[in-house]
Amino acid sequence: MAARSLTRERILDAALALAADRHWEYLRLHQVAAELGVSLADLSVHLDEKETLVDWLWDRADRGMLEQCRGEAFEALDFHARFCACVTAWLSVIAPHRRSFREMLMVRLEPGHLHIQLPTLFSISRSVQWMRELCGRDAGFLRRAAEETALTSVFVSTLILWLGDESHGGTRSRDWLHARLDQAIALSKWWPVA
Fold first, then answer.
1. Residue 43 above 90 pLDDT?
2. Rounded distance, CA 88 to CA 143, Å?
3. How much of the chain, in percent, has pLDDT values that exceed 90?
4. What is the mean pLDDT of residues 59-64?
5. 3-class secondary structure per residue, 62-97
6. Measured in whole angstroms, how far is the alpha carbon of residue 97 from the centre of its chain?
7. What is the per-residue pLDDT across 118-176, written as a single tens digit (0 to 9) for each?
8. Alpha carbons 194 and 192: distance in angstroms, whole number
9. Cα diameter, the chain
10. Phi and psi at residue 50, in whole multiples of 5°?
11. How many Cα atoms are found within 13 Å in the side-chain-facing hemisphere of 174?
12. How much is the mean pLDDT over the chain?
């Protein structure tokens, strides 16, 4: 592949293909460059470090969710169904790479990795913001903050469970998502109004 035809998507796809047969920790950028037939200098034009690939996969999940969660059928859903559809769509993008994604997150959670842990928190926040937008949530100030906290908790807890869910069709994590969202909605009557 010529360096001029390199794209973020091609780089990410090559890295994910290589990671499919090894632990994410052992994937190296020189291996990705070799897979693509380019130099490390060519790769460096597109990414600063290996952790950028994790951010790109997260962005891909956000974009996939935004593409899947639209149209009249989606708009006709109530909040509960919309939010569940958003989380399900987000997870569906990650699903082909679930083991690698789990390994990516485990590496990010190792002690001493604040420089990559904080961006993960920002990514979570951004994904939840997109979910709120897709669900047409208009709350402001304290109510918005409470809603964001509750929905972030639902999303993160579902993601963590899903990463290890071996139940048929992911029923365990899907049931968890529905139950936690029901709880958040029930508690929302106590959320601040101002």
1. yes
2. 25
3. 86
4. 98
5. HHHHHHHCCCHHHHCCCHHHHHHHHHHHHHHHHHHH
6. 11
7. 889 999 999 999 999 999 999 999 999 999 999 999 999 999 999 999 999 999 999 99
8. 6
9. 58
10. -60, -35
11. 11
12. 94
Q: How many other β-carbons are positioned within 10 Å of the β-carbon of residue 136?
A: 9
pLDDT the model gives residue 107:
92
Q: What is the structure's pLDDT at 1?
A: 55
Asked whether 1 and 42 are in contact (CB, 8 A), the reply is: no
In this structure, the chain runs to a length of: 194
Single-letter code of the amino acid located at 183? Q
Give residues with Cβ within 8 angstroms of 173, minimum separation 6.
91, 158, 161, 162, 165, 167
Q: Which two tokens stand for residue 79?
A: 């909040």
Q: Tokens at residue 76, please?
A: 């006709």
Q: Where are the alpha helices (DSSP H) in the chain?
A: 8-19, 29-36, 40-44, 51-68, 72-75, 79-94, 98-108, 114-134, 141-163, 171-187
Average pLDDT over residues 88-110: 96
pLDDT band at 4 (very low <50, low <70, confident <90, very high): confident
184, 153 Cβ separation under 8 angstroms: yes
Closest CA to 179 of 149, 157, 152, 147: 157
